[in-house]
Specification:
The chain contains three helices and ten strands, in the order H-E-E-E-E-E-H-E-E-E-E-E-H. It has 147 residues and is α+β, with helices and mostly antiparallel strands. This is LytR/AlgR family (LytT).
Length: 147
């Protein structure tokens, strides 16, 4: 796939055009990803063989499992094409918080933080699950007063 940019002094607004022989699943996915980046309000995730658009506020968390990135929405788990570092740059900080190198959580999905007896930071989620935050990210969270 070739990506290029053409400058037109007469253009009123930027336009993105995809030239292809036929409309494939990859082209549809690319269209949706471009639109979600522009809107910054939704993300396309994979459910079985289909791609599904999910609004960002509906996503509970993103996590890494067996070298793949998943998102959780109301107890359902979907595979995403983006890496954690891409999601960290893409997702609005007002809605999501990164707690480790392998997990980003919707702020509204966090019930509380708790320091365990071993000194690890537990993150208790609204659905009763417990996950752990790394010390490095907790230091950043406290320093920036994100909680």
């Amino acid at each position: 796939m070739k990506v290029s940019t053409k400058i037109d002094q007469n253009a009123q607004t930027p336009n993105i055009v995809i030239f292809a022989k036929q409309k494939t699943a990859k082209i549809v996915y690319l269209e949706h990803e471009i639109q979600s980046v522009i809107n910054h309000s939704s993300l396309f995730v994979k459910n079985q063989e289909d791609y599904q658009q999910i609004e960002l506020p509906n996503i509970d968390r993103f996590y890494t499992e067996e070298h793949a990135i998943y998102c959780q929405v109301n107890g359902q788990h979907y595979k995403t094409q983006k890496r954690i570092y891409e999601l960290a740059d893409f997702l609005p900080e007002s809605l999501f918080i990164q707690i480790s190198q392998s997990e980003i959580i919707n702020r509204h999905f966090i019930q509380c933080f708790r320091l365990s007896k071993t000194g690890a930071y537990e993150v208790i989620l609204r659905d009763g699950q417990t996950t752990f935050a790394s010390r490095r990210y907790m230091r950043r969270i406290k320093k920036e007063k994100l909680l």
